[in-house]
């Protein structure tokens, strides 16, 4: 389909029309062109509608929209439970038939099943070259080659040898091995080797601050840490403060570098390639396989309010979430997955393992080499996505928001005519997709370059980790021409709770309960969220099922506070507020900890407002601050430097003190918020401009780039107090 019925060209946009007589003539000509496109496209639609109707089967989308996706159960006075209606797939049945209960058993099963097929791929980095930039600076770029693949058989052999090598080093069942390494094939191989030995993996983000790394290693008393040449410097810095650390396993850097002798005090340094070479069988203690309830991973949350908490995930938890994830969509034998998100996050780990269950090969990448425009890709070289051409990928809102802003800024630079026409054709495409059709002509013309940004073959994308704004969701899935599924889950629920269906065209919702997972809404009287609310029941979300974690490591009181068991089901109190619509789909509407009650009794949800304002062109990042004794909120804003330069020639330090510039930025933020349905009380009345970048190293954001409100408030306490006084 090419056009949309019922959408008038340029409707309601005359207020944007240029004022000069020449521009008015151009604007009138543009309107004439759009009207012509509108008429021609409608004639095209009427002529080819029957063909498209039988090709796209739009009734499947309508059937989905009219059906119910969760079963309601009213067993409790102050709570209501929703059960999944998802049917098991063939792979779910296969897991049951083979009695797969641990990650070790899953890995052994898929290795035998897929044998010589490609499994894990790593792209060659042939060398590094200095590349001069237009501004006179010189950056080091990679010269990239092709992907090299390990088969399932080769991965199985490498896992076996590494597992034997770990046991020879005394790292067997009951020990804990920390991994501080970038996402790569060896990360997955090392984790599976630990699972084979029933050793617990302690996951650490590579951008986690030194204090967080020290806390995790010391709290878990990890006997060994796995790192690469790129992260070993962090281990050298923290080693004096980690008395339990005995062994460091060192991997080569992905880029060609010489392996110098690394000295780490009394710690024994073992090279990864030495483990792969194998050890004599008489030096290897016997292996003790894991059981379903054994702890497989201690995964440290990002720690937005203090020290990160270690969440204990059992093999049973991981398999329960895998069972749910492998039937969120239809997977095909020719699919391929691109892995670039941190494996220290359980969602990425499960996404990769779930792909392997279907025999889907995984190509590894990084943010620095993902696309043709990535920072480390040499001019003339293709990014990883354009070489691998994946069909499946996961993303996070931060990446999608950058794509959103890039598209919006590009259209604005093209001028008002291109911007208006692009917006109009966007509406065309969205309307037809809402009705179950597609727009192949637009896909191959207007959206072709944007599609090829990620290789051109992506057919399914899953976003998780944080809320995704409606504008970002709509624009990215329309321009990339791919169903964008929104997932909801926490580390404590092994990343699983709900996922939207590819046929769901709404935004702002997070899907129905996944297979084997229960969603409970519980009355929260203080916030006035009740299951008796109309038109939809509302309350605090509790997630129940075998995916719910064992608890927090060495935090029994906190575990008892957030976890509980009832009628044989383990539950986790998420602290999120949700409502379940008539079709059984969940929507997150608030968060208990993110709510502030203002002077006149109005509630403002920090998370909701920030997720909207983050997509404002002038905003790079934002943090709301409130005071219950006042009737308004303040925003600490990290501005987008490119956009700021287009507003004023002044430097950022000068802008911080310039009331006129602050007023202009505030007005732009407020206007954007109003256009995105934020209430007056939700809009910041004043702003504080931040000068320094918000990075995990600065302590302003977590390793997962979630804002750390307390730290930001403390840093800008003087400016905030001055405004409120």
From TrEMBL:
Enzyme Commission number(s): 6.2.1.3
Keywords: ATP-binding, Fatty acid metabolism, Ligase, Lipid metabolism, Membrane, Nucleotide-binding, Transmembrane, Transmembrane helix
Domain of life: Eukaryota
PROSITE patterns tied to this protein: AMP_BINDING
A GO term for molecular function: palmitoyl-CoA ligase activity
A Pfam family hit: AMP-binding
A GO CC annotation given for this chain: plasma membrane
Coiled-coil zones: none
Annotated InterPro entries: AMP-bd_C_sf (IPR045851), AMP-binding_CS (IPR020845), AMP-dep_synth/lig_dom (IPR000873), ANL_N_sf (IPR042099)
A GO biological process held by the record: long-chain fatty-acyl-CoA metabolic process
SUPFAM superfamilies associated with the record: Acetyl-CoA synthetase-like
Transmembrane segments: 28-56
Domain AMP-dependent synthetase/ligase: 133-553
Recorded catalytic activity of this chain's protein: a long-chain fatty acid + ATP + CoA = a long-chain fatty acyl-CoA + AMP + diphosphate
PANTHER family: ACYL-COA SYNTHETASE LONG-CHAIN, ISOFORM J, LONG-CHAIN-FATTY-ACID--COA LIGASE
Record family assignment: Belongs to the ATP-dependent AMP-binding enzyme family.
Protein name: long-chain-fatty-acid--CoA ligase
């Amino acid at each position: 389909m090419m056009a949309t019925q019922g959408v008038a060209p340029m409707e309601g946009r005359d207020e944007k029309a240029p004022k000069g007589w020449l521009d008015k003539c151009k604007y009138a000509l543009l309107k004439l062109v759009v009207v012509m496109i509108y008429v021609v496209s409608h004639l095209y639609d009427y002529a080819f509608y029957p063909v498209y109707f039988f090709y796209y089967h739009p009734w499947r989308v309508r059937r989905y929209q009219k059906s119910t996706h969760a079963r309601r159960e009213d067993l409790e006075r102050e709570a209501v439970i929703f059960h999944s209606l998802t049917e098991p797939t063939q792979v779910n049945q296969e897991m049951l038939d083979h009695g797969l209960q641990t990650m070790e058993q899953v890995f052994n099963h898929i290795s035998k099943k897929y044998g010589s097929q490609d499994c894990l791929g790593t792209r060659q980095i042939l060398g590094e070259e200095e590349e001069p930039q237009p501004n006179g600076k010189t950056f080091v770029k990679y010269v990239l080659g092709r992907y090299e693949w390990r088969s399932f058989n080769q991965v199985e052999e490498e896992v076996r040898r590494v597992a034997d090598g770990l046991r020879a080093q005394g790292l067997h069942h009951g020990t804990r091995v920390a991994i501080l390494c970038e996402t790569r094939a060896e990360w997955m191989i090392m984790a599976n080797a630990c699972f084979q030995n029933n050793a617990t993996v302690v996951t650490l983000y590579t951008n986690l601050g030194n204090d967080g790394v020290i806390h995790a290693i010391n709290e878990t008393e990890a006997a060994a840490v796995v790192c690469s040449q790129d992260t070993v410097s962090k281990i050298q810095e923290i080693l004096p403060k980690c008395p339990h650390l005995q062994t460091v396993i060192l991997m080569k850097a992905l880029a060609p570098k010489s392996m110098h002798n690394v000295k780490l005090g009394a710690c024994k340094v073992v090279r990864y390639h030495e483990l792969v070479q194998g050890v004599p069988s008489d030096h290897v203690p016997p292996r003790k396989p894991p059981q379903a309830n054994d702890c497989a991973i201690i995964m440290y949350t990002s720690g937005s309010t203090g020290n990160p908490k270690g969440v204990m995930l059992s093999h049973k938890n991981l398999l329960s979430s895998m069972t749910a994830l492998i039937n969120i969509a239809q997977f095909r034998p020719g699919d391929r997955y691109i892995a670039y998100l941190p494996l220290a996050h359980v969602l990425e780990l499960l996404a990769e393992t779930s792909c392997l269950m279907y025999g889907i090969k995984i190509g590894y990448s990084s943010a620095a080499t993902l696309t043709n425009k990535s920072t480390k890709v040499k001019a003339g070289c293709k990014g990883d996505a354009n070489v691998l051409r994946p069909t499946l990928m996961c993303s996070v809102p931060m990446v999608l928001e950058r794509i959103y802003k890039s598209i919006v800024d590009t259209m604005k630079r093209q001028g008002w005519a291109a911007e208006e026409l692009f917006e109009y054709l966007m509406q065309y495409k969205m309307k037809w997709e809402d009705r179950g059709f597609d727009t192949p002509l637009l896909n191959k013309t207007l959206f072709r370059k944007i599609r090829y940004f990620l290789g051109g073959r992506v057919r399914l994308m899953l976003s998780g980790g944080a809320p995704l704004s409606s504008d970002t969701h709509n624009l990215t899935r329309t321009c990339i021409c791919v169903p964008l599924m929104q997932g909801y889950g926490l580390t404590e629920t092994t990343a699983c709770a709900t996922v939207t269906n590819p046929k769901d065209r709404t935004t702002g919702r997070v899907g129905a309960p996944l297979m084997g997972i229960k969603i409970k809404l519980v009355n929260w009287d203080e916030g006035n969220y009740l299951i008796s609310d109309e038109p939809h029941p509302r309350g605090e979300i509790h997630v129940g099922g075998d995916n719910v974690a064992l608890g927090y490591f060495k935090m029994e009181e906190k575990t008892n506070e957030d976890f509980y068991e009832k009628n044989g089901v383990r539950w986790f109190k998420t602290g999120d507020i949700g409502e379940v619509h008539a079709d059984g789909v969940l929507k997150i509407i608030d968060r208990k900890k993110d709510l502030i009650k203002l002077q006149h009794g109005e509630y403002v949800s920090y998370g909701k407002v920030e997720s909207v304002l983050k997509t404002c062109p002038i905003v790079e990042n934002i943090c709301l601050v409130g005071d219950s004794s006042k009737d308004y909120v303040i925003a600490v804003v990290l501005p987008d430097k490119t956009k700021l330069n287009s507003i004023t020639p002044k430097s950022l330090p000068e802008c911080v003190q310039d009331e006129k510039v602050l007023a202009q930025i505030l007005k732009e933020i407020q206007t954007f918020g109003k256009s995105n349905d934020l209430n007056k009380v939700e809009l910041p009345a004043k702003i504080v401009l931040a000068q320094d970048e918000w990075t995990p190293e600065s302590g302003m954001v977590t390793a997962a780039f979630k804002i750390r409100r307390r730290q930001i408030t403390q840093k800008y306490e003087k400016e905030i107090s001055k405004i409120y006084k």
